[in-house]
Design goal:
The protein is mainly alpha-helical. It has one domain. It contains 6 helices and no strands. 10% of the residues are buried.
Length: 151
């Protein structure tokens, strides 16, 4: 006689376990799941804390190198609107300190600009990214990226 149900032993075992034992096993499973979630949350919190510390360190390094000019750019990014793309492009074009900075500084500032553009777009109900296609004019981010990276 062939067994057609692959879960036969699971079903049989389920029927043979008494309710108090089932409740105890379920409680153990819930506790293990809760502990696993807590452990994962703790690891994520630690990673986020390390990431934020790293970002602060990079920001301090940039402030030491570029000081007042960087603060002007950061203030401009904080006050940015959908209509200030041309102003931002012109600022970057005229920012010799940024154009001639080391690659790490340029890439970090480019990430600040990217973050600011994304936040403005989301705030206005637009998709975070909207790069142009080959037959369309470049977006502000694409123009700034080309100025800072050559790409």
């Amino acid at each position: 006689m062939a067994i057609t149900n692959p879960d036969f032993f699971d079903i049989l075992g389920e029927k043979q376990i008494v309710q108090p034992v089932k409740r105890k096993l379920a409680k153990i499973d819930r506790r293990a799941a809760a502990e696993a979630r807590k452990k994962e949350e703790k690891a994520e919190t630690e990673q986020l804390s390390l990431y934020k510390a790293w970002k602060r360190e990079i920001r301090k390094e940039l402030q030491v190198k570029h000081g007042k000019q960087l603060e002007v750019l950061i203030k401009m990014l904080k006050n940015m609107t959908l209509d200030s793309a041309d102003e931002l492009i012109e600022f970057v074009r005229r920012a010799d300190w940024l154009i001639h900075a080391d690659e790490h500084s340029r890439m970090t500032v480019l990430s600040y600009i990217d973050d600011a553009i994304i936040k403005v777009r989301i705030r206005h109900g637009l998709s975070p990214f909207d790069d142009s296609l080959w037959d369309e004019p470049d977006t502000a981010f694409q123009i700034i990226r080309r100025l800072l990276t050559g790409i």
